Amino acid sequence: MTSPVTLFIQCLLDAFHPEACQSILDVFRRLNISVIIPEDQTCCGQPAFNSGYRREAGRAARHFLDVFQKADIIVCPSGSCVYMIRHHYPLLFQNDRVRLNQAREIGSRIYEFSEFLVDVLGIVDVNAAYSGRVTYHDSCHLARGLGIREQPRQLIRHVRGAELVEMPDSDRCCGFGGGFSFKYADISAALVDDKVNAILASGADTVVGCDMGCLMNIEGRLSRTGSAVRVMHLAELLVQGGITART
Q1: Cα–Cα distance between 167 and 136 in angstroms, integer?
Q2: Interval 113-155: pLDDT, tens
Q3: What whole-number distance in Å separates Cα of residue 138 and Cα of residue 215?
Q4: Burial 153-162 (b: 16+ CB within 10 A, else e)
Q5: From start to end of 44-164, where are the E strands?
Q6: Under the phi-then-psi rule, with left for phi > 0, alpha for psi from -120 to 50, and beta for the rest, what region is 42?
Q7: From residue 180, how far is each of 49, 80, 101 by CA, in Å?
Q8: What pTM was estimated for this model as a whole?
């Protein structure tokens, strides 16, 4: 691959889990893929959009389009952000033909991390190794919105030493949903309890996902129950135990 990847980092990863961001860079470095990270990137506008603040979401979306308009390939480690850009940007700009065309064009060039590795590059083995039983959580936007279910599992299955074990109802919502988790706290708590019980029922010692909001919600509940189950973004698993290629 000759074109560099332009990386769009989800806000939650940037603010709370920069180590996962570093893992993404390490995976790309292992694959000898050049990465560009625009310093003036900000939020895609999803939190505002989901809360009904269309004007504020539009402002963030216009900034995103301006920052990434020259990028050949955009990769984002968040299914919810990619869904926002592909599917909700056209709604935001349905009355602005210029921006609508921009949104559609950029929407065709942005990929979720696992989708990019498997569907674009055709890579399922990134030379990772991890000893443990791993279960996978299907986040709502990724699985239902983008139809990305098998790609992360293919990558996990090729991690040497890792055993993929499916949890019951792996695609049932964990209860995060951004503002949903505090606007409807009781429902959110019940959902994440169900998710944690499913994780424990799988017998896994590690739960992996592709959306940090879900993972933070799950990790918080696991920690409050005293569980030793580890929580990882997919990129963190894929960088485990591997050999970084020399460049």
Answers
A1: 7
A2: 999 999 999 999 999 999 999 999 999 999 999 999 999 999 9
A3: 11
A4: bebbebbeeb
A5: 74-76, 110-112, 129-136, 160-164
A6: beta
A7: 13, 14, 31
A8: 0.93
Average pLDDT estimate for 79-105: 97
Question: How far is the C-alpha of 45 from the C-alpha of 50, rounded, in Å?
Answer: 9
* Residue 175 DSSP label: S
Average pLDDT for the chain: 94
Residues in the chain: 247
Contacts for 180 with CB less than 8 Å, ≥ 6 apart: 187, 188
The tens digit of pLDDT for each residue in 4-15 reads: 999 999 999 999
What pLDDT was estimated at residue 188? 82
**Segment holding 153, helix H or strand E:** helix 150-157
Q: What is the pLDDT of residue 216?
A: 93
Would you say the C-alpha torsion 42, 48, 49, 54 has a positive or negative sign? negative
Is the C-alpha dihedral spanning 44, 76, 116, 172 positive or negative?
A: negative
* pLDDT (average), residues 23-46: 96
Q: Residue 70 and residue 38: Cα distance in Å, rounded?
A: 11
Residue 73 and residue 3 in contact, taking contact as beta carbons nearer than 8 Å = yes
How far apart are the C-alpha atoms of 35 and 23, rounded to whole Å? 13
CA–CA distance, 7 with 26 (Å, rounded to integer): 13
User: Residues 200, 205, 209, CA angle at the centre, nearest 5°?
Assistant: 85
Give Cβ neighbours of residue 147 (< 8 Å, ≥ 6 apart). none
